[in-house]
Amino acid sequence: MAEYKIKDIEILTGIKAHTIRIWEKRYKILIPERTETQIRTYSDQDLSSLLNISLLNKNGHKISHIAEWDKDKINRLVWDIKMSRNVNFTEEKLILALLHTDEQLFSETLQVLIDDKGLSKTFSEDLMPFLERIGVMWLVNSISAAQEHFISNLIRQKIISEIDKQEIPADKSNPVMLYLPEHDWHEIGLLFYQYLLRSKGFHTVYLGQSLPYDSLLDCIQRIQPKAIISSWLTAIDKPFIINYFKQLKQDAPNAMLFAGGAQINLHSLDLIGYVTEIKNADSLLAHFVN
To answer: How many domains does the chain have?
Structure first.
């Protein structure tokens, strides 16, 4: 059985930790276990209960009323909401698709979001928070690596599908080159960068996962890119990543260097002057779109 901290519960349910504490104190919604140092811990059952309570609360039921209802009534009302075609419970659908490896449910839910607001907003507003939730669930062993890979590959396929809908630019000047460094296979963020640039009409050259440095230099010499974009998620030593970008700046003096991902954010202060951090979609496009 998984054991969650209150910050994990906040990420997975979307309910602020402060609100959870108030609900516990005022309405006795949950009575979490506590460690010897008085840190709250929550079970899978607690998580499930809070997801249901959150769904009811989002659909107009006051928390003071929910607190008085027994489990059967809560389950019945949740079921009624989920059976209604007029109710949007996107987050719950995505989690359900993950837990049951339901490709159809996930794909249909994601496509509705993309049709409604486009891939860019869907990625930042829905997929990024969802991927954070997946990360927490994997860390506390409430989902398997296979489930995480299943959903990640569906997201990857969907972004590639959206890229394929973009026109290949006729103007091949000033190309932007995208790649993952050697031993990094986490492609979703980089694919999203590719989509953003293609959607704005930029000529991009996508080199994919785990590109050896020698091959990168060969491509730079052949393509002469205006900009080079990478994404770094796999844990790596600070000296290595700093030396990597120092060397790349020397080897590609005419190209602007951009990079995103957890490792870039972690070492951002040490990388100033060598590479520009991509913090979000807007920060990337600001450097390319006037």
So the answer is: 3
DSSP state of 41: E
Given this model, what pLDDT does residue 37 score? 82
> Is residue 123 within 8 Å of 111, Cβ to Cβ?
no
Question: Which tokens hold the place of 179?
Answer: 């790649």
pLDDT score at 280? 85
Angle CA(215)–CA(220)–CA(224) in degrees, nearest 5? 160
Asked if residue 290 belongs to a domain, the reply is no
Is residue 234 a contact partner of residue 263, using CB atoms and an 8 Å limit? Answer: yes
111/194 same-domain check: no
| pLDDT digit string, tens, across residues 255-277 | 999 999 888 988 999 999 999 99
Residue 11 in any domain: the answer is: yes
Task: Kindly report, residue by residue over 134-143, the tens digit of the pLDDT.
Answer: 877 776 666 7
Q: Which residues contact 171 (CB under 8 A, 6 or more apart)?
A: 203
Residue written as token pair 């959150």: 54
Q: What is the full DSSP assignment across 96-154?
A: HHHHTT-HHHHHHHHHHHHHHHHHHHHIIIIIHHHHHHHHHHHHTTSS-HHHHHHHHHH
Q: Is the pTM of this model over 0.85?
A: no
Contacts for 185 with CB less than 8 Å, ≥ 6 apart: 209, 210, 234
**Tokens 């062993």 sit at which residue?**
141
Q: By residue range, what is the domain housing residue 117?
A: 88-165
Q: Is residue 44 part of a domain?
A: yes
Confidence at residue 8, expressed as pLDDT on a 0 to 100 scale: 80
Which residue is it, tokens 């000296």?
239
Is residue 12 within 8 A of residue 47, CB to CB? The reply is yes
| In a domain? residue 180 | yes
Assigned token pair, 159:
């972004």
Burial 104-117 (b: 16+ CB within 10 A, else e): eebeebbeebbeee
